[in-house]
Design the sequence.
């Protein structure tokens, strides 16, 4: 294993390979090797990590996408799915990575594959009894048929004044096909006939959704 020491260019060695790295200890197949614009780290003769001019491969870069949206204005009654008045949280926040686009006809399309955590939350109010308002995250794997992936329910029961309540549901999804795997969120009245209000605001999170991409598939 030859080293070249040069007063101008520094210390150089042969490139080696992942099975026979040029820089190692007593273990002959674990160490550092080199390629064109690449530094490779190996153990047991297997590449575990590489640094190239494009970035790092072989290890997780941590959370690379996080995004949060909200309903900017309040509305009355059920919305299945919620289509209108979505805006990104812009109060002390800007999306991390390549975030989501506003939903098209209430349908959220994932910007990339990966493991995702999703939380949907809503705030309600009314002046009479409106049992069992439900909020749901709906999921499709074929860009057509939706089913409930997560659900929560709130009970509004007025006695002397307006009743307020909030609820949330969450789910984790493995997204491998962004063309067919999608979600929507909905709010509906499942018992009772009274109208209820869903609170939204352009300045704070009252009804909204949070996305966190936890890692690669």
Sequence:
């Amino acid at each position: 294993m030859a080293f070249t020491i040069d007063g101008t260019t520094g210390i150089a060695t042969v490139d080696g390979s992942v099975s026979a790295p040029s820089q190692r200890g007593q273990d002959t197949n674990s160490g550092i090797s080199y390629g064109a614009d690449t530094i490779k780290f190996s153990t047991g003769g297997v590449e575990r990590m590489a640094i190239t001019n494009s970035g790092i491969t072989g290890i997780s870069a941590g959370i690379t996408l996080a995004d949060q949206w909200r309903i900017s204005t309040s509305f009355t009654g059920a919305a299945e799915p919620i289509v209108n008045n979505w805006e990104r949280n812009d109060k002390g926040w800007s999306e991390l990575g390549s975030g989501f686009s506003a939903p098209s006809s209430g349908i959220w399309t994932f910007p990339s594959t990966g493991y995702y955590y999703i939380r949907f939350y809503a705030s309600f109010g009314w002046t009479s009894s409106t049992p069992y308002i439900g909020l749901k995250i709906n999921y499709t794997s074929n860009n057509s048929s939706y089913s409930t992936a997560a659900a929560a329910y709130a009970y509004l029961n007025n006695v002397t004044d307006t009743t307020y309540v909030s609820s949330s549901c969450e789910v984790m999804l493995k997204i491998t096909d962004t063309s067919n795997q999608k979600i929507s969120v909905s709010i509906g009245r499942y018992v009772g006939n009274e109208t209820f209000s869903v609170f939204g605001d352009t300045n704070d999170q009252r009804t909204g959704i949070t996305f966190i991409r936890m890692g690669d598939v």
Q: What stands out?
A: The chain has two domains: 3-57, 65-215. The CA atoms of residues 119 and 144 lie 22 Å apart. The two ends are 39 Å apart (CA to CA). Residues 3-57 form one domain.
